[in-house]
Structure formats: structure tokens, C-alpha cells
Amino acid sequence: MGVVTKKTDQFQACIDACTKCTQACYECFNECLNEPDLNARKNCVSILIECAMMCQMSVAMMSMSGQFSKEHCELCAKICDKCAEECAMFKDDHCQKCEDICRMCAEECRKMVAM
């Protein structure tokens, strides 16, 4: 449910998913920096930040009922899918959890776009 109005209630599941994905990506990014194979994770580390930032912006767009919210969430789903693919290449716990959360977020973004 919206915090001060009910205007964003229809987006709440996607807002929550994007918020969780933002946190997961930042946490995974931080953990990846400490992995011994950091050089092999360059693409993963890069997309983690891109995904987190896109999710943050999606939350902002939906929270203000922005006129391009659907288009933004459509792109957010693509970026979350790509981030999940990158995380799937690494078998450590943080990347596996982040992969799952990114996939869930992408699905919620696609549902929001379909409204």
C-alpha cells in the first residue's frame, strides 16, 4: 500500500521487489569485491551496480506515478534478467541469492508493465 496515498497501491508489489533487488545487488556487489576471482567477475560487478541503480529509479518512478513508469520497468526487467544471468555464473551463496531476487524482480516488473 502507498505510504501517504493509495495512488501507488497497484505498483506496490513491484516497488517492494525493486527495493529488495536494489539491496541484494548492492550486498552482492560488496561480497564480490572480496572474492579471490574478482577479475573474472568484472561483468557481474558492473551489472550489479547498473541493476541496483535501475531498480532504485524504478521505485522512484512508480512512487510518483511517473508517466514513463511502465517503460522504465520494462527496461528494469531486462537489466534484472541480465544481472541474474551474470550472477548465475558464480556458485557462491551471495550470487545465487542475488540471481533469485533479480529474477523475481524482473517478473514483478513484467507484471507491472502488463497492467
TrEMBL record:
Task: Offer one Pfam family short name for this entry.
Answer: Csp
State the InterPro entries in the record.
Csp_YhjQ, YHJQ-like
Origin, by domain of life? Bacteria
Q: What is the official name of this protein in its record?
A: Four-helix bundle copper-binding protein
* Source species: Anaeromonas frigoriresistens
